[in-house]
Write a structure and sequence with these properties.
Length: about 160
């Protein structure tokens, strides 16, 4: 059975799909048995494509992208080995939905995996109301966190 990772942001059109496609590329490159997807804490954008600025930032960096937004459902906790929130608000929302301690233990913040991130600010900022530079910053933060995410996944796969 594959290791399953999901990224969660607010509307699932900016940050979480960006993180999803960056991790997808890495696990494909390493041929890891990992399934990756994403969702949002809210339903405002369910059924929408990823924000065009997210897609543009991914393409500029050489990543693919195909996405339809969806909302995280509490019944999904059992599906995932790792649930990665993009900011503290998403983490709190996920923890409040979690049915048990084991589920809460699967919830992490993305920037926890970035050794250069300040422990006092692990949020990936929402670029929705910003410009190209804001989306590029999010991509930089996502990419800086990926080595740590991949190490977590590799360790978990070895333990299986």
């Amino acid at each position: 059975m594959p290791y399953r990772v999901t990224f969660v942001c607010t509307g699932n059109i900016c940050r979480s799909p960006m993180a999803e496609w960056v991790l997808r590329q890495h696990v494909e490159d390493e041929n890891l048995d990992v399934e990756v997807d994403s969702s949002g804490t809210g339903g405002w954008h369910v059924g929408d494509d990823a924000d065009e600025r997210t897609v543009a930032a991914l393409r500029r960096a050489g990543y693919r992208s195909a996405h339809i937004a969806r909302q995280f459902e509490p019944s999904w906790f059992h599906r995932y080995d790792l649930i990665i929130a993009l900011d503290e608000g998403h983490r709190r929302a996920l923890l409040s939905m979690a049915p048990d301690e084991a589920s809460r233990g699967r919830v992490r913040l993305l920037r926890e995996f970035d050794p250069d991130a300040s422990p006092s600010n692990l949020d990936v900022p929402d670029p929705y109301y910003g410009d190209r530079a804001d989306f590029d910053l999010v991509l930089e933060q996502v990419e800086a966190s990926m080595p740590g995410v991949l190490e977590e996944i590799r360790t978990a796969l070895k333990e299986r």
